[in-house]
Amino acid sequence: MINSNGILKVYPESFKANFYTTNPFRMIGIIDVNIKYNYGIERVTLSFFRSSGTNSGKIKGLWYPIVGIKTYTGEFTEFTEYINFVLKNSTRKGRARKGWLAKSLFFPNSYNDDVIIKGFSNGIYHESLLEIGKILRDLYEKDEFQMMNSLDAIELNNLLTSKEIYKGNTHSQRENFEKFIQDIFNLSNLILI
Questions:
Q1: Torsional sign, CA 84, 88, 92, 93
Q2: b/e code 81-103 from CB counts within 10 Å (16+ = b)
Q3: Which domain of life does this protein belong to (predicted)?
Q4: Based on the structure, what is the number of domains in the chain?
Q5: Which range of residues forms the domain containing residue 172?
Q6: Is 28 contained in some domain?
Q7: In this predicted structure, what is the pLDDT of residue 92?
Q8: Quick check: pTM over 0.85?
Q9: Average pLDDT value over all residues in the chain
């Protein structure tokens, strides 16, 4: 069952980023968006990373969505029960190394179009996630973001799975983020990367 009708709005002023690695050079960031769910429109924080190269067909400088960041080597247990399940079932061997950017969910087995840009899921979220990636690239290149020095793997994961209910919302960040992940997981034939 699809829980939402897609991303309706992006809040550019909410874009926060920090250095993640220097070799290769990577930035991680968060941004707030409005997503229309079957229970209403909710403000939700999503996470992205800036690609430093072209591995797996990525475009250098474009920002790609991530589910979170692995905080230790092994099976997935550091996220919520549902997100751990999704990552276990969308990642080779159901495990990863510490520091791994959890992006496999956004690389489905097949795409509706041969010329689609990979790394932004398939289905209702593809175009909006790609558009957000372009918006973040532009904001980053214009230095129009807030540097958040505390944003590391643990802080990013905590923000995405927070039980906080944002002003005007009826559900927590965690519930809304899990529904977003569930829609992508249910609609995708996953490629294990």
A1: positive
A2: ebbeebbeebbeeeebeeebbbb
A3: Bacteria
A4: 1
A5: 4-187
A6: yes
A7: 85
A8: yes
A9: 89
**Would residue 88 count as lying in a domain?**
yes
Task: Give the alpha-carbon dihedral of 94, 46, 98, 83, to 10 degrees.
Answer: -30
Residues in the chain: 193
Listing DSSP states for 15-75 in one string gives EEEEEEEETTEEEEEEEEEEEEETTEEEEEEEEEEE--S-GGGPPTT-EEEES-B--SSEE
CB atoms within 10 A of CB 57: 9
Q: How far is CA 120 from CA 22, 128, 167, 189, in A?
A: 24, 9, 28, 13
Which residues does the chain have with pLDDT short of 70? 1-5, 54, 56-57, 109-115, 122, 187-193
Percent of the chain with pLDDT over 90: 68
pLDDT value at residue 22: 84
